[in-house]
């Protein structure tokens, strides 16, 4: 393995530690399956770190280009340039690759790491003769079948500028989710070190103190401990990360101060905390089967811990794991809900749709789905529905068999007058004028 391969493996491993390979792969595959567009994760050198080949393959055009080593290198350089441009502006970057296809890159900027999620392999216009001649010039020098390449170019999907922008925006949502997950883990690692030092200092102070416990005091302390544990359960269930960490620190101080010389007793008490926290995670919306898998891992790790100091730090990390999982699970479910809502609109735009209809289709409340859709795509559900209807209307207007009245009805607009107003607002011309120029 050469030096470049080693560095690439380290980048993948670093991202996996921060975000998780399964989550990265699941997010890219969810995007690809919902949009029909292949997505890959690349570094700032254009190297592909994670690909969705197992879900969606490259188009025939790209496969032929990449079959030549020089063509593959040019693709890599295109990716590297797009990655740099996207990171420069911190927003989706739409570009033409070296072979002439339209693609877009969503930047990932994480603690000095620069990468991008890249997607596309489409055209934004009908491939005319001059374009095919341009492609022939672009791929000159590659050992590939030029005629086959030009034919495959003519078969590429054609997307409107609005759809390209919408897909780029949705990809940006995915990239932001990756960055948010990674930053959460980085922040947790930094806090663990600081909190470990504070916790160790307070434990030592408790050890030096002479504590005389009477039966009544012991009973009172036990009641207080149960109240703290119940409060911890509520905080975890509600996703109150900072408050839960502070309360766990207090609980650990109580436990370790009383049982510092009895490792088995400490492990038993910590085991009780694992049960409390894991049940709270399930109450908070985590999948029971996945929580049980985490529990099995934690029980084995707990058994192998050799000292009380390591046990204290491990307990803190255990809480971090559950809280991070709850947060990631919530964000992933939101992304899936946005994708399902968008897909439902695209499949039912001809019908009279309401926000309640869309919310019912994704099993969420109307208020909640409206909020996450706006946050995710930057437009409301009804604005997105209107965009989809207008895009369908534009396609139908190009067909001479339909008049404006028919187009309005078939694309989901009940009132032709309203259709005309909306169409002109979005496209700058009336449907009639658009049809005249399109024919």
TrEMBL record:
Coiled coil: none annotated. Transmembrane segments: none annotated. InterPro entries: Homeodomain-like_sf, HTH_AraC, HTH_AraC-typ_CS, PocR_dom, Tscrpt_reg_AraC-type_HTH. Pfam families: HTH_18, PocR. One of its GO terms (molecular function) is DNA-binding transcription factor activity. Keywords: DNA-binding, Transcription, Transcription regulation. Residues 339-437 form the HTH araC/xylS-type domain. PANTHER family: ARAC-FAMILY TRANSCRIPTIONAL REGULATOR, REGULATORY PROTEIN POCR. This is Response regulator containing CheY-like receiver domain and AraC-type DNA-binding domain. It comes from Desulfosporosinus meridiei (strain ATCC BAA-275 / DSM 13257 / KCTC 12902 / NCIMB 13706 / S10).
């Amino acid at each position: 393995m050469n030096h470049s391969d080693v560095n690439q493996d380290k980048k993948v491993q670093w991202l996996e530690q921060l975000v998780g390979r399964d989550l990265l792969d699941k997010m890219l595959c969810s995007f690809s399956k919902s949009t029909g567009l292949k997505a890959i994760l690349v570094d700032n050198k254009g190297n592909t770190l994670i690909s969705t080949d197992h879900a969606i393959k490259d188009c025939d055009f790209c496969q032929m280009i990449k079959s030549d080593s020089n063509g593959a290198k040019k693709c890599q350089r295109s990716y590297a340039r797009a990655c740099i441009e996207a990171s420069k502006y911190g927003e989706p970057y739409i570009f033409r690759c070296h072979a002439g296809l339209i693609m877009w890159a969503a930047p990932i900027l994480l603690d000095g790491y620069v990468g991008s999620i890249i997607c596309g392999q489409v055209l934004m216009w009908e491939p005319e003769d001059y374009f095919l001649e341009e492609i022939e010039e672009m791929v000159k020098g590659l050992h590939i079948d030029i005629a086959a390449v030009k034919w495959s170019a003519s078969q590429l999907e054609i997307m409107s500028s609005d759809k390209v922008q919408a897909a780029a925006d949705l990809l940006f949502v995915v990239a932001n989710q990756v960055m948010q997950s990674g930053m959460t883990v980085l922040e947790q690692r930094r806090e663990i070190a600081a909190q470990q030092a504070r916790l160790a200092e307070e434990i030592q102070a408790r050890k030096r103190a002479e504590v005389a416990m009477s039966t009544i005091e012991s009973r009172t302390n036990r009641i207080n401990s149960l109240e703290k544990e119940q409060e911890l359960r509520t905080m975890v269930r509600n996703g109150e990360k900072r408050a839960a960490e502070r309360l766990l620190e207090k609980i650990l101080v109580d436990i370790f101060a009383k049982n510092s010389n009895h490792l088995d007793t400490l492990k038993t008490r910590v085991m009780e905390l694992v049960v409390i926290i894991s049940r709270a995670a399930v109450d908070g919306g985590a999948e029971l089967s996945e929580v049980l898998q985490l529990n099995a891992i934690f029980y084995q790790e707990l058994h192998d811990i050799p000292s009380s100091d390591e046990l204290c730090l491990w307990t803190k990390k255990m809480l971090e794991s559950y809280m991070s999982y709850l947060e990631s699970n919530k964000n992933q479910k939101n992304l899936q809900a946005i994708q399902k809502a968008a897909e439902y609109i695209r499949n039912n735009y001809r019908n009279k749709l309401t926000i309640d209809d869309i919310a019912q289709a994704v099993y969420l409340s109307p208020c909640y789905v409206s909020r996450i859709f706006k946050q995710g795509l930057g437009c409301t559900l009804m604005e997105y529905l209107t965009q989809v209807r207008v895009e369908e209307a534009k396609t139908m207007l190009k067909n001479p068999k339909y008049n404006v009245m028919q187009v309005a009805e078939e694309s989901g607009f009940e009132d032709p007058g309203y259709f005309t107003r909306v169409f002109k607002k979005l496209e700058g011309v009336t449907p009639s004028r658009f049809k005249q120029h399109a024919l």
